[in-house]
Design a protein that fits this description.
heterodimer; A: alpha+beta; 16 helices; flat; disordered N terminus; B: about 150 residues; mainly alpha; globular
Chain lengths: ~625, ~150
């Protein structure tokens, strides 16, 4: 153990008792005496980073002092604990020294605090307490290393781009009975009441109102949820924590396990609480300092990578990724067979006559089974259809000899955390009609289909909190061109196996042409349709759209436009382009049609910088106008 | 070690109510679905919907069997369709996990895998097989096997 660069007290619990006492005696010379602790010494300890982390204390925004993010009186030993780190520390020091033991003893309820206080203070009572429940818990968890698991976003659901993270507690790897599917996981999630409506769920999830709870579940349950039901690939980042750090993390997980921390979608979310756990495990990491207004799970993974906390990265493709890959790997005639099998047009027994080799038969049956399972999850194929089909496919498969392992999708070359950063600042120069302008665009998150595609799902777009501001050069007029609150777009190609809907939705405020003026009007837009692949990197789409604009300059105060959008999207590591035609028929106020042809292209020079060009030709109110734009995107 | 694994499984399942003690129950191997809307919303806001995601019932837990069989039954309950898939192929991580739960040593894994594959039709006789019935069939097969019977001795 000598090769770990940590002070000896971290290892006390691993050492024989005699050696431990010797070391304690030696350490006592440098530790503070708890009985003779002065007020200033207590204050200093209470304001140390480690203590603030253990209590989840954060500086108050509008006043001096600290408040804990824990929303649970059982998390505090002092009545003033929520707002006073010092009172809580004093109460904890007194409490852990009380005689006795057992599950309800403060030292057993707060083992991480107890461990930390003992490393700082020379306590009167020795560390010999029996905490049966806590000891049984850690023994059952049997943890050697900890892995941060990131559930990536999935095809056709850009809103899942937010991602999700949880911790997996890995057993010792040299053990023959080790099985990672059985490893336990720790996650933090909003505890929604089952009877709440979906709308209420979304509202409370975003604006707060649900208690957040820490739960422990086996990894296979997580795989079922994320990989099988939600079609999300999992990235496994093994943390390089030492055994002592792992112990401290578990000790603190025990402290917060059943305690309530109110859940907020944007900042105090799943990822946030895990960062706090890592900060406690390795003092000085200070991952929470990286969080500003929001903690996007994929960003939190970047921070963990940046702080050199990762030793190894693994990839677990979702059921959806695996089935797409397995079907793609089949030659065309075998794909057709798989489709016939899945539609019950032919029976599994019949493929022996159609394919000569048992390896080919096995590959078709395997891929078809995965596809049927996927469809039963994603498309809700009814059980009466799926169960007999699934059973007959596997029965036929079991009668074929064991062949080589079915192909599994290769790990993507660029991980989600290696994609471009999500904050984007853009500068451009352009011309609208007869007027020249400069434009500044700031986008707080996340990804646009014309941004560098590596590490993101093709055809998926999620932007929120984006500001486009223009300065017209003729009269130096400064104008907000557009404020985007949320914009989601999902273009997902259809084929003989999958028929996803392509869709888009967005709202905010934008300049609207009234015929005589351009006014900033709140808008809501949406669209739905389909897309087909036209080249490996290209897809063509057709969407029916609907727009709503509100403004008192519109003669009825609002306007509505049904419309269409037909276009082609091309995405590659060097160049992304989007072009097409769009038509909107404003039917309430202006009763004019707005027709546009558009072409946008982005050259990706590096992960940091892209150059972009944009052209739109518009026919509206019986006149033609053109927009030109040329500029730079910088990803930060 | 076996005991530890069983404990880990039960720890994970402790939020679930064991509503149906007794033999031969358990969930359908090929279940129907509850609908994607809830999942999408849950994914978007990173929340959970109470216990909806854990539609687990227990199979042979009330039976007079040894602890490793009980943990196998519990694992079967929530992963039956994947275990069935692995068994039809004679390989796969879920089949390995089953072997781990039963305590099957490395030296016996090959014959375990082969036994499961060769007897697929006996373990899953119909589309309406439940995980509990599959567990009972697996135990019966192992009991009759020369070198594997030791893993299911009560």
């Amino acid at each position: 153990m000598a090769h770990f660069p940590f002070p000896p007290h971290k290892y006390l619990t691993y050492m024989p008792l005699l050696l431990r006492q010797l070391l304690l005696a030696a350490a006592a010379a440098t530790s503070l005496n708890a009985q003779a602790l002065t007020q200033s010494e207590l204050q200093e300890l209470a304001s140390s980073r480690e203590w603030l982390n253990l209590g989840h204390y954060h500086p108050n925004t509008f006043s001096d002092g600290y408040t804990s993010q824990a929303d649970d009186s059982d998390f505090f030993l002092s009545p003033n604990g929520k707002t006073s780190p010092e009172a809580e520390l004093r109460a904890t020091i007194n409490a852990v020294q009380q005689p006795g033991g057992g599950n309800d003893h403060p030292a057993c309820r707060f083992p991480a605090r107890d461990q930390w206080i003992r490393s700082k203070l020379d306590l009167a009572t020795p560390e010999s307490r029996q905490c049966p429940a806590y000891e049984e818990w850690t023994e059952t968890l049997n943890t050697q290393t900890v892995t941060l698991v990131f559930a990536a976003s999935y095809l056709n659901s850009p809103s899942s781009m937010f991602g999700h993270t949880f911790l997996r507690l890995d057993p010792p790897s040299d053990d023959e009975t080790t099985d990672l599917l059985l490893a336990n996981t720790i996650s933090y999630a909003a505890d929604a009441a089952a009877h709440d409506s979906e709308l209420l769920f979304a509202y409370k999830g975003i604006f707060g109102g649900y208690p957040g709870i820490t739960t422990v579940q086996p990894y296979y349950e997580k795989i079922r949820l994320y990989s099988d039901i939600e079609h999300r690939d999992l990235w496994e980042y093994q943390l390089n924590l030492t055994p002592a750090e792992v112990r401290q993390m578990l000790a603190h997980a025990w402290e917060i396990k059943d305690r309530n921390f109110d859940y907020y979608f944007f900042d105090e979310n799943c990822a946030y609480r895990l960062l706090a756990l890592i900060d406690v495990a390795r003092p000085g990491t200070n991952l929470l300092d990286e969080v500003s207004t929001h903690a996007i799970p994929s960003d939190t993974v970047r921070w963990v990578v940046k702080k050199s906390l990762i030793s190894e990265v693994g990839y677990r493709p979702s059921a959806a990724t695996a089935v797409s890959y397995a079907l793609d790997e089949l030659p065309e005639d075998q794909q057709a067979l798989a489709a016939e099998l899945a539609n019950d047009d032919i029976k599994p027994g019949a493929i022996a006559g159609k394919l000569p080799s048992t390896a080919q038969q096995a590959a078709v049956l395997d891929a078809t089974y995965e596809y049927v399972r996927y469809q039963s999850e994603a498309e809700e194929w009814p059980r009466e259809q799926v169960a007999p089909l699934s059973h007959s496919l596997l029965l036929a498969r079991s009668q074929l000899p064991q062949t080589s392992t079915p192909p599994s999708p290769p790990e993507p070359e660029v991980r989600d955390d290696q994609g471009h950063d999500t904050f984007r600042a853009s500068l451009s120069a352009g011309r609208w009609g007869e007027r020249n302008f400069n434009e500044l665009t700031l986008r707080s998150a996340y990804h646009d289909v014309l941004d560098p595609p590596a590490g993101y799902r093709a055809g998926a777009q999620l932007q929120f909190f984006r500001l486009d501001a223009r300065r017209y050069t003729d009269n130096n007029e400064l104008q907000i061109e557009k404020l985007t609150a949320v914009e989601i777009r999902s273009l997902s190609p259809r084929n003989q196996f999958f028929s996803p809907l392509s869709w888009q939705v967005g709202f905010g405020a934008r300049r609207s042409d009234t015929g005589t003026d351009r006014v900033l009007a709140p808008y809501l837009e949406g669209g739905a349709g389909g897309s087909v692949r036209v080249s490996p990197n290209g897809q063509a789409f057709a969407l029916a759209t609907a727009d709503l604009e509100l403004d008192d300059d519109l003669n009825r105060g609002y306007d509505i436009a049904p419309g269409v959008d037909l276009g082609v999207l091309y995405q590659s590591d060097r160049l992304s382009a989007l072009g097409g035609i769009r038509s909107k028929a404003w039917i309430v106020s202006s009763q004019h049609r707005q027709d546009q042809a558009y072409l946008k292209a982005t050259m990706h020079w590096s992960r940091l910088v892209s150059g972009f060009a944009e052209w739109t030709r518009e026919h509206h109110f019986d006149r033609y106008q053109s927009l030109w734009k040329l500029g730079l995107h910088i990803y930060l | 070690m076996k005991k530890l694994i069983a404990g880990a499984l039960l720890l994970g399942a402790s939020t679930v109510t064991f509503a149906q003690p007794g033999c031969g129950l358990g969930a359908m191997v090929w279940k129907g679905q509850s609908g994607p809307a809830a999942h999408i919303l849950a994914a978007t806001t990173n929340g959970t919907f109470g216990n909806q995601t854990f539609g687990m019932t227990t199979g042979t837990l009330g039976c007079d069997t040894n602890e490793s069989v009980q943990s196998m039954a519990l694992y079967m309950d929530s992963n039956a369709d994947k275990i069935a898939r692995d068994m039809s192929r004679g390989e796969g991580e879920n089949l390995e996990t089953l072997a781990v739960l039963l305590g099957v040593e490395q030296g016996d894994r090959e014959s375990f895998r082969a036994l499961m594959k060769d007897n697929f039709a006996a373990i899953f006789p119909s589309a309406d097989t439940t995980s509990g019935q599959a567990v009972d069939a697996i135990v019966a097969l192992l009991e009759q096997h020369e070198s594997l019977s030791k893993y299911v001795a009560a």
